[in-house]
GTPase (Streptomyces parvus), 138 residues
Amino acid sequence: MSVILRLTGVYQAEGGLVGELRYVSKKLVGRGHCDLCDVTHRGIRAKPEWDAWVRSLPVPHDLVHLNERSEEVREFSDGLTPCVLAHTDQGLRLVLDRAALARTAGDVSAYAAALSEGVRDAGLRWPEGHSPAARRSR
């Protein structure tokens, strides 16, 4: 079983002022949507429950916009966004795809459960002695 070293969530949106404004305008007219954004943000601010849950994880959980991806993440995630990737001791693995993120309906607790399921289904494990499965969103 591969060990998770860190997680990267990739938004279906460009970063920066222009990217953020473009995303908001598309969302308002029903032409753009990012299920990962719905989990992590309420309006323009991060959800407090998201911040608390991320602090409980045994590994870092980064969030990047399309134009902020490393080359490795870009090559792996092209055509898959929004998604969540696990960086493991054996390379990148997809743990949450677009459909799994949509099923969370923007709920942090549902995201946590989906992530646990995605980790299990991908045959991955958390670092020795750490498992967020028993932890609850605060």
Helices lie at 16-28, 35-40, 48-55, 71-77, 98-103, 108-121. Strands lie at 2-10, 41-42, 45-46, 61-64, 83-88, 91-96, 124-125.
